[in-house]
Amino acid sequence: MRHRSLLILTAVLTTGALTLTACGSRDDDKGGSGGDSGNQTVVIGLDAPLTGDLSALGLGIKNSADLAVKIANKDKTVPGVTFQLKALDDQAQPSVGQQNATQFIQDKKVLGVVGPLNSGVSQSMQKPLNDASLTQVSPANTGTELTQGNNWKTGDKQRPFKTYFRTATTDAIQGAFAANYLYKNANIKDVYLIDDQKPYGAGLAASFKTTFTELGGKIVGTDHVNPDDRDFNSVVTKVKGSGAKAVYYGGEYPAGAPLSQQLKDSVKIPLMGGDGMYSADFISLNKKAEGDIATSVGKPVEELESAKKFIADYKTAGYKDAYEAYGGGTYDATWSIIEAVKAVVADNDGKLPDDARTKVLDAMSKVQFEGVTGPVSFDEYGDTTNTMMTAYQVTSGKWTSKLSEAVK
Amino acid sequence: MNELPQQLANGLILGAMYGLIAIGYTMVYGIIQLINFAHGEIFMIGGFGALTVYLGLPSGFSLLAAIPLMIAGGVVCSVAISVAAERFAYRPLRGGPRLAPLITAIGLSLALQQAVWMWYPNATKDRSFPQFKGEAIDIFGASIQRGDLFVIIAAPVCMLALGLFVSKTRAGRGMQATSQDPDTAKLMGINTDRIIVMAFAIGAAFAAVAAVAYGLKNGQIGFRMGFIMGLKAFTAAVLGGIGNIYGAMLGGVVLGVAEALATGYMSDVPGMELFGGGAWKDVWAFVLLILVLLIRPQGLLGERVADRA
User: Fold this and answer.
1) Is A388 helix (H, G, I), strand (E, B) or coil?
2) What is B4-124+139-295's CATH number, 1.10.3470, 3.30.70, 1.20.1440, 1.20.1280?
3) Which parts of the chain span the membrane according to its record (chain B) (predicted)?
4) pTM score of the predicted model
C-alpha cells in the first residue's frame, strides 16, 4: 500500500519536473575557447511563453529569433562567430522568467537576451540581467515604466535599468494612438473601459483613458475582469445598460475572445484592444470577431518593403507556426544584438573580448540598421526610436490594417 | 433599461453549471469524506472528450444531432479517468491519514492538466468549441443565448434523474446507506467498493455534461479551464451543504447569482464604488460563503451530523 502511493507520488513529481525542464538547458561545451581557431560561439538567449494561452505569440517570437540567428550564420554577418539560440519557456509567469534570466546569466556564452512577451515577466527579469550587465531586448513589452521609471507620468523620466532595450513602442504611445483612432477615425465618443488588472492591460487602459478624455470622449463605465475567467456575461450586461458605443479592453486575446463574443451576443458594438489582442487566435476563438479593432506596434510587415525578405525567409525556413504580431520586431531585436556583437568583435581584432557582455551593452546604444520594421535604433531610455503604430480591424474574418502612423 | 432579469439569468446559467460540477464533489465527499480536488480536471477532460467526438464527425453533421454523441464521448472519457483515478490513486490510500488522498488529488490534478497539455493535439492553447448559430431568445426581459438553453434544460433533467436514482433504486439506497455508515452498510451486504466507484462515475458524468455546457457557452475549452470552475463548484458544494446533492445544485445557483449581482450592483451601493465589478465578484462570493457558514455551519441544506467531522 505505502509502496504504491509512494510510486504514484514519485510519478506525479517526475511528470511535473520533466515538464518544467523539458525546454530546459542543453549545455554544449564544444566550440568553446577556440581562440585562434577563428570560430567562437555566441549564444543569444530567448525568453517567451512557448506553452500556454499566449504560446501563439510566443512561438512566433521564438521562430523569428531563430530565423535571425540562422541568417546571420549563413551570411557570416560576424566573421569568426557562430550564433546559437537558447530558447526558454516562461509560461507568461514572472517567477519562471526570473529563473530563466538566471540560467542565461550562468551560461557565459550568452551575450544577449531577446524577450520576453509580457511586461510583467520583464519586471522580474530586469534586475538580475542588469546586475550581470547582460543586454536584454524585448520585441513586445509595452509597459512604459520598464524604460522610463515609475514616475514617467509626471514627466520625471528615469531609466531604471541600463541593460533593458525594446523594439516595441510603449503603452503611453499605443494607448494614445488607440484613443485617437477610435475618437477621430472610427468616430466613437462613448467607451466602456475594461482591463484584466495585469501590468500590461491596466497600463494600456489607463493611457487610453487619459488621451480619450483629453480629446473630449466619454468613459461611460469601467470594470476589471479576471484574465482566467471565460464568462463575462455579467459585465456585458452592465456595458449594455451603459449605452457605450464601443468597449476598450486592456488585456490579451485568451480572455478578449470570449469577452468580445459575449459582448456581441447581447449588444452589437466593437471591442478594441492593443497588441495583446492582435493575434490570429483571437479570431479563431471568437466567432463574432467581425468589426473588432486592435492596435499593434510597427507597420504591418506585409506592407513593408523592408520586410519582404523576412517573410520570404520565414516561409522558406518552414516553421509550423505563424510569426504573429511580433515576428518583425523580434527579428530586429535579435539582429540588434548581432549588430552589437559585430561591432565589439570588429573593435577587438576579430575576436570576442573577455568582458564581452559589458562591451556588447556599450555597443547597443550605438546600434543603427535598417530592420524588418524600419530603421532600428534606441534612445537614451532604451526605447525604440521607431514609433510607428497601426490600427487593424477584423473584416471578413481577417485582421486588416486600417491606419499606420508615427506617434509623437 | 432594467438589468435585473438579465443579471439573474446570467447568474442562473453560470450557477447551474457550477451545480452540475458540484455534484461530483458532494457525492464523493458524502461517501468517503474525500475532497476530490482532481474533479475540476475530470470536468476539463469531459470537454476534450466531447470535442474529440465532434471533430470525428463528418462535416455537415448538425450540431443538435451531435450533442448527444458529444455528451456520450465526454462522459466516457471523464468516467474512465475518474474511475481509474479512484482505483489507482485513491483506493490504495483509503484508511490512511485523511491528508494523504487529499495531496494525491492535488498531484493528480496537476498531472492530468499536463497530460492533456502534452498529448491532446494543439491543447497548449485554447481550442475552439462548436456553438449554435442564431440570435438570442428573449424570456422575461432577459436574452438567453441558444447555447445556454442546453444547461437550462440539462441541469434540471440531470438532477431529477439523480434524485430518482438515489431514492428509488437499490443501488441508490445502497449509496445512502454507505454514506450514513459504511461499516454497517458493509455488514448488511452492500458492496461498498462498488458504491464508491459508482459515486465517482456519476460525479464524472455530471462534470462531462457541465463541460459540454461550458464549451457551447464560451466557444472554447482549454487545459486550464478545470481549475477555476472546480474551485467555484467546490465552493458551491460547501455552500449548499457538502454531502447533499440538492444542496450542491442550490449552492451552485446561489453562488452564480451572487456573482452576477455583485458584478452588476455592488458598485452602486454607496461607499462601495471601488469594490464592485468583475474583479471583486469572487471576493463577494466568498464573503457570502463565510456568512452562510457562520449562521449554518453545515451549509444551506446540509444535515447536522454529529459523528463526522
Assistant:
1) strand
2) 1.10.3470
3) 12-32, 39-57, 63-85, 97-120, 149-166, 195-215, 246-266, 278-295
4) 0.81
